[in-house]
Structures are given as structure tokens and as C-alpha cells.
């Protein structure tokens, strides 16, 4: 969300650098939403930017989405063309105070990201580290919800109309996710559970029961 042209200019560098550093995912440790903006003027922030972010966060709340990040891009070129500007941290501080509450880490700064400078690279490194961490946190949270929904579905297996085939597709999808993460032991657990459940239904059917 936010400035689409700005994000488009940053995307090539972001897509190249994000996968370069390895990250280890662990249980209990791809869906994160980002708002990107370029704002050096406190008046512009009061007039439009604050309202834009407010509308964006209201949409997130309506969809019960709590995984988000605000990226503020700072440009010395923009700053030099303005007068009577407050210190560069003022916009970031306002955003953190207005929207981040105790989650100040949900607002990060990119300083002149398209320049080849040590300052730019330092801000990129900090941004990428934060983005990788939040992506893993978001993935873990959504994976946990998926597992909870799967368990709820499994607990309904004694109810009329419950389908083993439909349930199989759900748990198999979870196994595929673990395989893609190269978490093969976790994937094997899913297949073992499916095998045990299927074997149970085969035994029940052989004893005169119904096979879903």
C-alpha cells in the first residue's frame, strides 16, 4: 500500500537482497502487508499521509490482519528543496506515536535507498533484517491457525457428512508446506497421522462400520 511508484523503484533491490541471507525457521519462533511512503514534510503528513495510513490500517483491522510494516523512505534530495523542516526523525516519530503504540519496530526507515552509500546500505541491512524476521513471525502465526483449523476439522470426524478425502487434502497441504521448508520430520508426522486415521477407518469398515 502507499506510494506504488516508490515501491516499484525499490522492488528490484528488495527482491535481489531479501533471499541472500539464510534464515532458520523453528516452530514457535509468506503474510505480511507493507505500507511504503516518502514524506519529509510534517504538513503533508497531517494533510494526507496520516489519513492514508489510517484508512489502510482500518482495512487491515476489518480483515483481522495484524501482520504489517510501515516503511518510510528518506531522501536528502527532497529535504534540500524544502525550508523550515523539522529533524528527519520527526515524521518517523509521528508515525510511531500515531500508529505503532508499543510496536515501534513496525515502522522502519530507508535512507536514500537508491544511492550507493554506506548510509544507504546500513538502512537496507536493517530493513531486510526486520522484514525477514516479520515474515517468519507472520508465517508461524498463519501456520498455527491452519493447524488449529485442521484439528477442529478432525474432531468433527464422527459427525454425519464428514469426508476423509476432504480432510486428507487439508493435512496433505500442510505436509507439502513442511516439505518446501525442508522440515521433513514435521512433514512425515503429518503423513503418519493420515496413515493412522485411514487405517482406523479401514478397520471400522471391516467391522461393519461406514467408511467416509
From TrEMBL:
UniProt GO BP: early endosome to Golgi transport; intra-Golgi vesicle-mediated transport
Domain TRAPPC10/Trs130 N-terminal: 32-208
Pfam families: TRAPPC10_1st (PF23036)
A cellular-component GO term for this protein: TRAPPII protein complex
Superkingdom of source: Eukaryota
Protein's name in the database: Trafficking protein particle complex subunit 10
Organism expressing this protein natively: Tinamus guttatus (White-throated tinamou)
Top-level taxonomy: Eukaryota, Metazoa, Chordata, Craniata, Vertebrata
Amino acid at each position: 500500500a502507499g506510494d506504488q511508484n516508490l515501491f516499484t523503484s525499490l522492488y528490484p533491490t528488495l527482491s535481489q537482497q531479501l533471499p541472500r541471507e539464510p534464515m532458520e525457521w523453528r516452530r514457535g519462533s509468506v503474510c505480511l502487508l507493507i505500507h511504503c511512503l516518502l514524506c519529509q514534510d510534517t504538513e503533508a503528513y497531517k494533510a494526507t499521509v496520516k489519513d492514508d495510513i489510517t484508512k489502510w490500517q482500518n482495512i487491515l483491522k476489518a480483515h483481522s490482519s495484524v501482520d504489517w510494516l510501515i516503511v518510510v523512505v528518506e531522501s536528502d534530495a527532497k529535504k534540500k528543496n524544502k525550508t523550515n523542516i523539522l529533524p528527519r526523525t520527526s515524521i518517523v516519530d509521528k508515525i510511531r506515536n500515531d500508529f505503532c503504540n508499543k510496536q515501534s519496530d513496525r515502522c522502519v526507515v530507508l535512507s536514500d535507498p537508491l544511492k550507493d552509500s554506506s548510509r544507504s546500505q546500513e538502512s537496507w541491512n536493517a530493513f531486510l533484517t526486520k522484514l525477514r524476521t516479520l515474515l517468519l513471525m507472520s508465517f508461524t502465526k498463519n501456520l498455527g491457525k491452519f493447524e488449529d483449523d485442521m484439528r477442529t476439522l478432525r474432531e468433527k470426524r464422527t459427525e454425519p457428512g464428514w469426508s476423509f478425502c476432504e480432510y486428507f487434502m487439508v493435512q496433505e497441504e500442510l505436509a507439502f508446506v513442511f516439505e518446501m521448508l525442508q522440515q521433513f520430520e514435521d512433514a512425515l508426522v503429518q503423513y503418519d497421522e493420515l496413515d493412522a486415521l485411514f487405517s482406523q477407518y479401514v478397520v471400522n469398515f471391516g467391522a461393519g462400520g461406514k467408511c467416509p
